[in-house]
């Protein structure tokens, strides 16, 4: 990772202690403190003699006190509890002002700070607390000015990078250099598109965060809403921001580094998000033009103009998928159609010659070969139902489209997933009746039996079903029902009377079986 061009984000405790004129004396030596204790940032200086000032403090502050809260004599346990409250709050340093209440710093306080790992300094009588606070304020102002100056310079450098060829890549590369973070772009399908530096996820110094970042990017894209998030993973702070408009997300920008982005860095990232989103929107306009061309080619393909479509497709995207092919149909929400088209366009670039797709009204039709059929599972991961035809050649493609649409109708009856037309064809024509408006007709046909069973406690309807399932054989039906075959015969005879049908005829049995399927 190239060194960052940005100054340090906040003044450190070491810099504050080194300010001339303050004459602060470190009572807990650096060797006795936790590693980097003097290099932690200092946000502000606060003074208080309360026994418990922590409700009025925040992390990374310096607390100054004259010690009036320490009763004379205060016990070692009192000092230890006091210091523990400060460390639990995240206080960076405790400064004890001498010669105001007492001479010198209490030894018990020094011991408690050493035991808890809290930096302790002595503030001499000639150094007012306000002088320490003013020095810290000057450092904060100095760093704030430096950060704003750096942010302006970084934004200028990024704007210049946008003017170079392949502006998007140059923008992201410059952002990575300015922040000292790796920067990654994920496409509309959640796949890693590009990363800077290019070895950010490989080599000895590689970030281990790629799986977590990719999973989070996919989650944000599936939501379909503009969003950002920050994660802590493996010692890195990860920042993700979607690109594009709500309902038409173009991708996700991700950054990772050892430090969290401060306000100035966030400003730079925000400008890059706008530039990257604009670049992707421009690419999207080209994609929409290609989408119109694809829709026209689909109609030509369904009309039998295979040579024409092959020639145009070969010049723009590669050859059409080789026969036999399968047709897949999806009906995404209208606001997700553009995002889905972008995802499929990316998959065409990755595997040319294996996928053709086009919009047909509110549906998306895919022509695929076996090499990219796993793509259908990926689409299910975006919450889409998928209907898939049997294998077909291009001459029978219109029939394959009808099959895929019938499979899609079946898919919408259950949870999100893939339904193959083969599943429907195996169940037969009668099974399809249960998914049409024949259900009311079926219930009306069987109502004399269901009403009789309800009012007389009989079992004519279930007996009829079992009897038909056993091809009208009384013995096997009686065995399954656990009754004598003469009982089954009597029930079927009674059913014939109620229905007014001769169940010895094939067409009557077939009609009742269809009614049972339709009624459910």
Automatic annotation (TrEMBL):
Residues 460-518 form the PucR C-terminal helix-turn-helix domain. InterPro entries: CdaR-like_regulators, PucR_C-HTH_dom, PucR_C-HTH_sf, PucR_dom. Gene3D superfamilies: PucR C-terminal helix-turn-helix domain. It comes from the Bacteria. Residues 35-136 form the Purine catabolism PurC-like domain. Coiled coil: none annotated. Pfam families: HTH_30, PucR. This is PucR family transcriptional regulator. It comes from Cryobacterium sinapicolor.
